[in-house]
Write a structure and sequence with these properties.
Elements: E1 2-6, E2 21-25, H1 28-44, E3 75-80, E4 86-90, E5 102-104, H2 111-115, H3 118-121, E6 127-132, H4 138-150, E7 156-158, H5 163-174
Parallel strand pairs: 3-6, 6-7
Antiparallel strand pairs: 1-2, 3-4, 4-5
Length: 175
């Protein structure tokens, strides 16, 4: 609280002066209030937690013979191209099979529609292979992983792109 302090006059001299009044403010309640508000806001706010996606990596087999071969009927390949383009085809990309390469985008009516289609969701053994090109961006990789998470795709793998995949994409772009 504020308090008024009075100073006594020594009484010397003949003139009578008016008494000087000094003020003193006690800041303790204001500091208490500031700390109460500070602790209140610290305890009631939620701090942002980093969001991460959990990816389980398979154990590398001891012998090559133990590795299970993937059938073409159980494979879907997604190629991440430049300028945010996405290409996909079903199968392993064998030129003898002549896979139909389709261009799409990252929208809900693009690659997500393909990932939730009966051809992909209806096959429990379907494995989605993601092959980024050298010219694709990191954002494209994050976007396709988000789409796989949204569509609850269980089996997928990040695979290096082959020359065959590059040729299939170039053929599609040349049309």
């Amino acid at each position: 609280m504020a308090e008024v302090q009075q100073h006594d006059d020594s009484g010397k001299g003949g003139k009578k002066r008016s008494k000087k009044m000094g003020t003193h403010m006690d800041m303790t309640p204001m500091v208490d209030l500031a700390f109460l508000l500070l602790t209140f806001f610290m305890l009631t706010t939620t701090f942002s937690k980093p969001q991460t996606m959990e990816i389980n990596m398979p154990v590398k087999p001891d012998k090559e013979e133990e590795q299970i071969a993937l059938k073409a009927s159980n494979a879907m390949t997604i190629v991440l191209g430049e300028d945010d383009k996405v290409f996909y085809y079903f199968g392993l990309g064998d030129p003898a099979e002549n896979p139909e390469v389709i261009e799409t985008d990252y929208s809900a009516t693009g690659i997500r529609k393909v990932l939730i289609s009966p051809k992909v969701k209806g096959n429990a053994k379907m494995t989605v292979m993601i092959k980024p090109m050298e010219t694709s961006r990191y954002k494209n990789m994050v976007d396709i992983l988000d789409e796989l998470k949204i569509t609850d795709t269980k089996k997928f793998a990040l695979v290096e792109i082959t020359d065959t995949d590059k040729q299939l994409v170039q053929t599609k772009l040349g049309q």
